[in-house]
Structure formats: structure tokens, C-alpha cells
Amino acid sequence: MQNGSSTPAEVAAALSVRERVLLFCIASATDWLLARITAETATALLLKGLLQRDTTGRLSLTDRGRAVLRAMLPEL
């Protein structure tokens, strides 16, 4: 699990390519399974506190996940 005191930029820098792609997929409502992202990657981001599941099991970004995504896209 990521240290809660890590900055969003530090968390973003430590993410794997698959974890980054999954964040983009969730943020853009793209089917992450079609992007060949595994459930293990989703679980990793859930444990890092970047994603959450709703009552139907659908993934969404947490506030921290949105902050990390913004850190990955500083130009926007």
C-alpha cells in the first residue's frame, strides 16, 4: 500500500504502465478489460487507494486517484 504522505506526483511516478493505463481507462469510462488490464492490476490500485468499487462492483477513481491522474497530466 502507498504511504499516505506520498505526493500524487510520487505515487504517479511509482505506478507501472498497466496501473497508469487502468487509471486512464477508469477516468475515460473505457472498458479496461478490452485494454487487457488484469484484475490483479485493478486490485493493486484498490489497495493503493486510487480506485474504489461501488455497490454494483463498478470501479471509479477516489479523490487520491484523481489527484494522481492530474499529476500524470500536468499540461491539462
Would you mind describing this structure in some detail?
This protein has 76 residues and is mainly alpha-helical. It has one domain: Arc Repressor Mutant, subunit A. 49% of the residues lie in helices and 8% in strands. The longest helix has 11 residues. The N and C termini lie far apart (27 Å). The model has no long low-confidence stretch (mean pLDDT 92).
Q: Provide a count of the helices.
A: 4
The CATH architecture comes to: Orthogonal Bundle
Rg from alpha-carbon coordinates: 12 Å
Poorly predicted runs: none
Element string (H = helix, E = strand):
HHHEEH
Share of helical residues: 40-55%
Provide mean pLDDT, rounded.
92
State the name of the first-level CATH class. Mainly Alpha
Outline of the structure:
With 76 residues, this protein is mainly alpha-helical. It has helices at residues 8-14, 17-27, 39-47, 63-72, and strands at 51-53, 59-61.
Write the layout of secondary structure elements.
Elements: H1 8-14, H2 17-27, H3 39-47, E1 51-53, E2 59-61, H4 63-72
Antiparallel strand pairs: 1-2
Helix pairs in contact: 1-4
